[in-house]
Specification:
The complex is a heterodimer.
Chain A: H1 6-16, H2 18-40, H3 49-54, H4 56-61, H5 65-95, H6 98-113, H7 120-127, H8 131-155, H9 159-167, H10 172-209, H11 214-224, H12 228-256, H13 258-261
Helix pairs in contact in A: 5-8, 5-10, 6-8, 7-8, 8-10, 9-10, 10-11, 10-12, 11-12
Chain B: H1 2-33, H2 45-58, H3 62-91, H4 94-108, H5 116-123, H6 127-151, H7 155-163, H8 168-205, H9 211-220, H10 224-254
Classes of the chains: A mainly alpha, B mainly alpha.
C-alpha cells in the first residue's frame, strides 16, 4: 500500500474532470488575451475581453445593431427551414427511384463541389442588398448536403423491410411513413447538421459582403474607425448565435433518435 | 438478361443528364436572345463565351490569378506546418487528446468567416488578411485529422514494434506514419479545399486584388458578361486545384 500522495490525487481529479481542464485551458487563453491586449498590443487593434464584455450594452445601444442581429437570426432560421424543406423534397424525389438517382446525383455532387462564393455578387445583383439575397445564398449553401444525405439515407434502407411492409398490405404512403421515414432520420439529421453549417456560412458571407447595410455595414464601420471593442463584441454575439443554432439542432437530433435506443 | 438492361439504364441516365444540361443552356440562350430579359441581369451565353475568350487571350487574368494562387499557397503552407505539428504533439498522449480534441472540434463548428473583419483590422485589406483567414480555417481539419490519424493507431502494433526493439524514430517511420497517413491525407485535402474557399471568400468581401476581388468589382460595375466569364474561370481554377490535390493524395496513399 502506498501512502496518500496529493500529487497523484490531483492527477486523478484532473483525469476524471476533463471539462474542468478544458475550462482552465480556455480561461488561460482568455487571460493571455487580456494581458496581451492591456500591455503589449496597440489598443487601436485589440481590446481585452473584459472591456469587450462591458461594452456589450453600449453595442446594443448603437443605433441599428440590435435590428441587424435580429434580421440575421431571422435570415438564418428562414434559410435553414427553406433548405431543409426543399432539400428533403428533392432528396426524396431523386432518391426514391433508380433513374433520377443515377441521373441527378452526379449533377448535384458536381454543384456541391463548386465554390459557390464566386457567384455571391450575382445573388446580390438578383435579390438586392436586403434579406432576400442573404436567405437565398444561405439556402444555396445549405441545400446540397441535405439532398445528398437524404438520397443516401433512402438508399440504405434494406429492401426486405419495404417488401415486407408491402406484403402486409401497406400503402405507398404507409411504407413511407412507417418504414422509409424512420430509417432516414439519422442520415437526415447528419444532412441537417451539414446544412446548418452551410446556411451559417452562406448567410454570414452575404451579410459581410453587403457593406451598405446589416452586419457587413457595422463590421466595416468598426474596422475603419479602429474600434476593436465593438467589432469583437459583434463578432462574439454572432459566434454565440451560430453555437446556439448548432446546439439546438443537436438537441433535436437526440430527441428524434430515441426510438432506436429503445 | 441483366447486363443489357443495366447498360440501357446507364445510357438512359447519361441521356437524361445531357438533356438536362442542353435544356438549361438552350433556355438560357433563348431567354436572353428574345431580349425580354435585361442583359445586365442575365447576359447571353455567346457574349459570355466571347468575353471568356477575350480574357484568356489577353492574359489580363494573370495578375489576379497570381495573387489568389500565392495567397492559397502561403495560407496552406502555414496551416500544414501548424496543424501537423500541433496535431502530432497532442496525439502523443491520450490525455491531451481527451482534453484538446473536443475543444478544437467545438471551435471548428463556429463559422470562421466571422473573424475576417478582425483580420482586416489586424492586417489590412491586402493579402495578409486573406492568408490569415485561410490559415486559421484550414488549421482545424488538418489538426483534427492528424490527431485522429496518429492518436488511434492500434496499440498492439506499437507494443509489438517496441518489444522488437524499435527506436522512437523507427516507430514513427515504420509504424505510426503508415498507419496514420490515410487519415492525415484526408485532413490535408479538406484543409486545402477550405483554404481555397476562404481565400476566394475573403477576396470577394474585402480586398485590392485577386480573382474574387475581380468578380466583385465587375459586379459593382454591372459588367455582368465579363463577370460570368470570370466566374467560369474561377470555378475551373478551383476544380483544377482540387483535382491536383486529389492526384497528390492518391499518389501518397499508394506508397
Amino acid at each position: 500500500m502506498s501512502a496518500y500522495n496529493p500529487w497523484r490525487a490531483l492527477q486523478r481529479e484532473f483525469a476524471c474532470r476533463l471539462w474542468l481542464v478544458r475550462l482552465i485551458v480556455i480561461a488561460g487563453l482568455l487571460a493571455w488575451w487580456e494581458i496581451a491586449a492591456r500591455y503589449w498590443v496597440d489598443p487601436q487593434f485589440l481590446s481585452p475581453p473584459s472591456r469587450v464584455l462591458l461594452s456589450l450594452p453600449s453595442l446594443f445601444g448603437t443605433k441599428g445593431v440590435p435590428a441587424a442581429l435580429w434580421i440575421t437570426l431571422w435570415e438564418l432560421t428562414l434559410a435553414f427551414v427553406i433548405a431543409a424543406a426543399i432539400g428533403l423534397a428533392l432528396g426524396l424525389a431523386i432518391g426514391l427511384s433508380q433513374l433520377p438517382r443515377r441521373s441527378f446525383v452526379p449533377i448535384i455532387l458536381l454543384l456541391y463541389g463548386t465554390p459557390q462564393i464566386t457567384i455571391l455578387p450575382l445573388f446580390v445583383l438578383y435579390f438586392g442588398i436586403g434579406p432576400a439575397s442573404k436567405i437565398a445564398f444561405g439556402v444555396s449553401h445549405g441545400i446540397f448536403p441535405i439532398i445528398v444525405t437524404v438520397v443516401a439515407g433512402v438508399q440504405n434502407i434494406k429492401p426486405i423491410l419495404v417488401v415486407a411492409a408491402r406484403a402486409m398490405g401497406a400503402s405507398r404512403w404507409q411504407v413511407f411513413r412507417w418504414v422509409i421515414f424512420p430509417h432516414m432520420i439519422p442520415s437526415f439529421f447528419v444532412g441537417l447538421r451539414l446544412g446548418m453549417a452551410g446556411v451559417l456560412l452562406g448567410v454570414l458571407l452575404a451579410e459581410l459582403y453587403v457593406s451598405s447595410a446589416g452586419i457587413g455595414y457595422f463590421t466595416q464601420m468598426f474596422t475603419e474607425s479602429f474600434d476593436p471593442t465593438k467589432l469583437l463584441g459583434l463578432i462574439s454575439l454572432l459566434a454565440v448565435m451560430a453555437i446556439t443554432c448548432n446546439g439546438l439542432l443537436r438537441r433535436a437530433e437526440l430527441h428524434f433518435q430515441r426510438w432506436r435506443v429503445n | 438478361m441483366i447486363a443489357p438492361r443495366q447498360r440501357r439504364d446507364a445510357l438512359m441516365s447519361r441521356g437524361l443528364q445531357l438533356g438536362f444540361l442542353l435544356a438549361l443552356i438552350l433556355l438560357w440562350y433563348f431567354a436572353t436572345a428574345s431580349g425580354r430579359i435585361n442583359p445586365v441581369l442575365l447576359p447571353n451565353p455567346l457574349t459570355v463565351w466571347h468575353n471568356l475568350v477575350q480574357v484568356l487571350r489577353s492574359g489580363e487574368y494573370w495578375p489576379d490569378l497570381q495573387v489568389t494562387l500565392s495567397e492559397i499557397a502561403v495560407a496552406f503552407a502555414i496551416s500544414c506546418v501548424n496543424g501537423l505539428l500541433l496535431g502530432y504533439l497532442i496525439s502523443r498522449s491520450q490525455y491531451l487528446i481527451a482534453v484538446f480534441e473536443p475543444l478544437l472540434a467545438g471551435i471548428y463548428s463556429i463559422p470562421m468567416i466571422l473573424f475576417l473583419p478582425l483580420f482586416v483590422l489586424f492586417f489590412g485589406l491586402g493579402s495578409w488578411s486573406k492568408i490569415a483567414l485561410g490559415a486559421v480555417i484550414s488549421f482545424f481539419p488538418i489538426a483534427l485529422n492528424t490527431i485522429a490519424g496518429f492518436g488511434y493507431v492500434d496499440r498492439i502494433l506499437i507494443r509489438s514494434a517496441r518489444s522488437m526493439g524499435a527506436s522512437n524514430a523507427q516507430l514513427l517511420r515504420y509504424v505510426l506514419l503508415p498507419a496514420a497517413l490515410p487519415v492525415v491525407l484526408t485532413g490535408l485535402r479538406i484543409g486545402f479545399t477550405v483554404t481555397v474557399l476562404a481565400v476566394f471568400g475573403s477576396e470577394t468581401i474585402a480586398s485590392f486584388a485577386g480573382l474574387g476581388h475581380r468578380i466583385a468589382q465587375l459586379a459593382d460595375a454591372m459588367e455582368t458578361a465579363r463577370m460570368f466569364a470570370y466566374i467560369a474561370f474561377a470555378v475551373v481554377i478551383a476544380a483544377v486545384l482540387n483535382a491536383l490535390m486529389a492526384v497528390v493524395e492518391s499518389r501518397a496513399r499508394r506508397q
